[in-house]
Every structure is written in C-alpha cells, then in structure tokens.
Amino acid sequence: xxxxxxxxxxxxxxxxxxxxxxxxxxxxxxxxxxxxxxxxxxxxxxxxxxxxxxxxxxxxxxxxxxxxxxxxxxxxxxxxxxxxxxxxxxxxxxxxxxxxxxxxxxxxxxxxxxxxxxxxxxxxxxxxxxxxxxxxxxxxxxxxxxxxxxxxxxxxxxxxxxxxxxxx
Length: 168
Fold this sequence. Notes:
The chain is of the alpha/beta class. 49% of the residues lie in helices and 13% in strands. It has 7 helices and 4 strands. The protein has helices at 3-10, 39-55, 70-75, 84-108, 122-132, 147-153, 156-163, and strands at 30-34, 58-65, 113-119, 137-138. A 4-stranded parallel beta sheet has the order 3-2-1-4, sandwiched between helices. α2 (39-55) links the parallel β1 (30-34) and β2. α5 crosses α7 (156-163). Residues 148-153 have low confidence and may be disordered.
C-alpha cells in the first residue's frame, strides 16, 4: 500500500494528494466535485464551496452512474420489466436533477457552478471529466476503508488519485 493512501484513511482533515507526474497548480480556477449522494460527499462539496469562495473558482458538480453489467440481465428473471437501458436512463435523469439542483443552490450563493451527470466507470470518468473541463483540483470524499474492506470494495478516491492529472 501507499503511504499517501494510509494517511488519507487515517486523517480527520482534508488532504490534497498530488501525483509526482502531475502538472503544477499555480491557481485554482476550476474545481471538479464528484458526488455519490453520501454525507461525506456533501462535506466535500462544502469544502469545495469554501475554496471557490476564496479563489473565485468555478465548480463542476459531477455524478457518475455505473452501467449495469449485461450479465446481470442475462441471469435475471424473465419477469424483469426494466432493461439496462431503462435503468440507466432513469438513473441518469435522477443524477442530472440532483446535480442541477446543487448547482442552482451554489449559484444562489454567488458561486459559479454547473451540474454534470454521466454514465461510465466511476474513477475513469472522474479523471476524464477533470481533463475535459481543465479542472485545477478535484475535491472528493473517501470512506477511508482499510484492510480487507478496501481490498474487497476498492477505493474510488484512490483510483482517481492514480488516474487524474490534477491534485485530488
């Protein structure tokens, strides 16, 4: 395991992780905030808002919907009424509404913000969205799992740190 991952899992304060091959950050003009609907995500959004207030940065609030594997539908009952496409369309519509409302609330507090929802592999999509939107920083939460839980469940935040160009 990584020392940085160990510190992230144990620290009670926000921490910025910068990969050795990342570009230097000279200003913070665009912040990407991936959310998963949890309380921890809301705390990350609050921190991002404070950073935006201090720097004048624009926030992009992102929710990524994981596609349902086709194998799930192949093994599901024939009475299943929704196809994977139906589920993904409904989930995406809900995610768009969620991030749209958050962006509106931020705008009401004089923060330039947009909401974005998409379907894809979560860490890869976050990293690509950061690149596509020229994000200077990604602000996200982590559940701080360690040991067997992390080995089994993985860590989206860890995967984003390993893939994304901007600091996380």
